Amino acid sequence: MQPEGLVVSPAFSHVAVVPPEATTIYVGGQNGVDSAGAVVSADVAEQSLRAVENARVALETAGAGLEDVISWTVLIHQDADLRAAYGAVASKLARDGAPPLVTAALVAGLGVPGALIEVSAVAAIIRT
User: Fold this and answer.
1) Where are the domains of the chain?
2) Is the confidence at residue 71, as pLDDT, over 80?
3) Could you tell me the CATH superfamily of domain 22-126?
């Protein structure tokens, strides 16, 4: 939702309401790593794409997809290029209608050595 009196952005919303009949899915922090846990590249754009892909795989195991995400948290290493990181994944985070909530922060470090980005997500699906 875009409440009156707050900036309107095509990249993010300010408020999301999950109806009681929805199933809420939480995806923990995903880095740009392969299935063995190795960082895929020293390039933040490549890591960003893989982190979102890893989140997509996690969502699919719960019967959801990227289009069901209502909130993203994006942590980017302070030495990484923020524009390159977000630019690589912006189209994957977007969706028709109201965009998801997005919280982003630059951080001094991440738990995975060599990781430049970590994403987590909250999704909601209504089962009929």
Assistant:
1) 22-126
2) yes
3) RutC-like (3.30.1330.40)
Residue 88 CB burial class (10 angstroms; 0-12, 13-18, ≥19):
buried
Contact by Cβ (8 Å): 124, 70? yes
- Model pTM score: 0.90
Tell me the average pLDDT across 19-32. 95
Burial of 109 from C-beta contacts in 10 A (0-12 / 13-18 / 19+): exposed
C-alpha 116/C-alpha 110 separation (Å) is: 7
Are 65 and 23 spatial neighbours (Cβ–Cβ below 8 Å)? no
CB distance 24 to 123 below 8 Å = yes
Task: Tell me, rounded to whole angstroms, the distance of Cα 38 from its chain centroid.
Answer: 20
